[in-house]
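Apologies for my clumsy wording, but can you show me some protein sequence, whichever is easiest, together with the matching structure tokens, please?
=====
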Amino acid sequence: MADEKLLKMEEARKVSVENFGKIIRFYAPSFTYYKTSFYSSTPSAFPTISVTGSYCALKCEHCNGIVLNTMLPALTPAELFRLCEKLKMEGAVGCLISGGCMPDGSVPLGRFAEAIGLVKRELGLTVFVHTGI
């Protein structure tokens, strides 16, 4: 069993290197300051954006919606693109786009799909999305 898992991991690494090379990049959301001997975050390098502002229907115990208050709000697709343009000009390399959850646990990102594509294609930002729980 362990040998089988090791073989799968080795194969996955081989495929990864063939497609992406040996460099591994790590991104840390900017809402928390990180400083280690290997990495120090900056507030504008990889900001977090909420498409719901401070709204969250679930208010889960782990966050209670408080994390949303650390995020930049972008409530419309146009606001999202303009915010990302500004962030790019300020030196951002990417962003995390998320927001509060709806009652079913999803983050309402559907109407932002086209704007997210434009952010990637036109601005060249690395974009991560958190789609819900």
The mean pLDDT is 90. Residues 24-129 form one domain. The radius of gyration is 17 Å.
